[in-house]
Amino acid sequence: METWDAIRARRAIRDYDTRPINPEDLNRILEAGRRSPSSSNEQRWAFVLIQDRDQLQRISQVWRGAGHIAKAPAAVGLVAPVSDDPRIIGSINYDLGQVAMAMMVTAADLGIGSRTASVHDYVLASEILDIPGDLRLAWLLGLGYPADRALKPIERPDRRSFDEVVHHDRW
């Protein structure tokens, strides 16, 4: 799939079929995250690839909106340093957004669906994944082949119109 097609095909997947994901494809998705842009090239992230069925079930309990993680063939935990500094927190969150998008577009390019999930119970997440105390699980990314239909470019996305969003030279 071409990059433009992958961007247009990416959608939030809640239901996955049972096919496992090829390890080379998972590594490509993780590598896309590793190569993501980073504020001052700090690269304040690490990834935990989760494929064990019990681990996926347990980690899905870190937020009420993470139920799809329990049914995914794989998930990636995006781990970042703990900080009280609002500027650092903002920078890390921006970088993690870029990581997630790079991973999701790469997954879509491979025909693999994805969906993010927030984390609200950091203590439980740290216990489940053995995350050191100076780090926290910031986001989860569920991965799997869509159960309903294969990914393909969406012709009419549910988005505001181009003219409503794009302004030239001034508002």
Short characterization:
The protein is of the alpha+beta class and 171 residues long.
Q: Can you put this structure into words, describing what you see?
A:
This protein is an alpha+beta fold and 171 residues long. Helix content is 39%, strand content 17%. It contains seven helices and four strands, in the order H-H-E-H-H-E-H-E-H-E-H. Strands 1-2-4-3 form a four-stranded antiparallel beta sheet, with helices on both faces. The mean pLDDT is 96.
* Bulk shape: globular
User: What share of residues is helical?
Assistant: 25-40%
CATH homologous superfamily annotation? NADH Oxidase
Main sheet overview: 4 strands, antiparallel
Which structural class do you get from the secondary structure elements?
A: alpha+beta
Round the Cα radius of gyration to an integer and report it: 17 Å
String of helices and strands: HHEHHEHEHEH
- Overall pLDDT: 96
CATH 2nd-level architecture: 3-Layer(aba) Sandwich
Q: How many separate domains? A: 1
Uncertain stretches of 5 or more adjacent residues = none
What fold name goes in the CATH topology slot? NADH Oxidase
Secondary structure blueprint with pairings:
Elements: H1 3-9, H2 23-34, E1 46-50, H3 53-59, H4 67-71, E2 74-81, H5 86-109, E3 113-118, H6 122-129, E4 135-144, H7 162-165
Antiparallel strand pairs: 1-2, 2-4, 3-4
Helix pairs in contact: 1-5, 2-5
